[in-house]
Amino acid sequence: xxxxxxxxxxxxxxxxxxxxxxxxxxxxxxxxxxxxxxxxxxxxxxxxxxxxxxxxxxxxxxxxxxxxxxxxxxxxxxxxxxxxxxxxxxxxxxxxxxxxxxxxxxxxxxxxxxxxxxxxxxxxxxxxxxxxxxxxxxxxxxxxxxxxxxxxxxxxxxxxxxxxxxxxxxxxxxxxxxxxxxxxxxxxxxxxxxxxxxxxxxxxxxxxxxxxxxxxxxxxxxxxxxxxxxxxxxxxxxxxxxxxxxxxxxxxxxxxxxxxxxxxxxxxxxxxxxxxxxxxxxxxxxxxxxxxxxxx
Length: 296
Description:
Elements: H1 2-26, H2 30-51, H3 56-79, H4 85-106, H5 115-120, E1 130-133, E2 136-139, H6 140-168, H7 170-175, H8 180-219, H9 225-250, H10 254-286
Antiparallel strand pairs: 1-2
Helix pairs in contact: 1-6, 1-8, 1-9, 2-3, 2-4, 2-8, 3-4, 3-8, 6-8, 8-9, 8-10, 9-10
């Protein structure tokens, strides 16, 4: 039964992260996902220190504020200070992440938050913390991730047309009068919420991997947004299942094995696509316009 809850929790994280990641890669903001996933740490730490509670409400609020602040700061450095996008992201997230690590380390005696858990996470610990819900014993982290995943789906369903236009052509979206800035910050807030609720179970490193790698893998197969969302979710779920099997066989860390499988799927799709393109190019090069063979 413990394996069931570990896989369920991993799938919830995978589906929600890959769905958001699909829009991030279209907006060419994958590194911003990395920045937010690290920069929410000081928000979590400050929320605990100020409230004295690990209530999901305070954690969510602190992460949201920190995530939106990160997105705002990156844009401000880029547009107002003239700093390049990659440089502004690098400066912002490394500084905020360092602040979060220092806060957690400095107050380690007063809180059970741990930087190793935040960085790497461990799904095998998920079944250890169960609560009563509707007559069933369900892991708390799994229970928390269900509404978060539902919120991700609801957001995409409600704002799908606007997200589609804004992701492919933000300039056109602004010309059509779409409130791109408001949509941007709502989206980044959702990324922050998804990240913070995924921290304790899978860690920051796997959150980034699931935000980026399945979506990039799916992007190599299709240019349609609906199929991109579907394929990204399938690759993410396959990464969780394959990672669990690999971790069981190798007796190794589950989160690392999931990230490894995600990378292997990317490498497999990339290799097969390159092989297919080479065969098509070779066929076009050796065949005339009417199907007659060309001697080379």
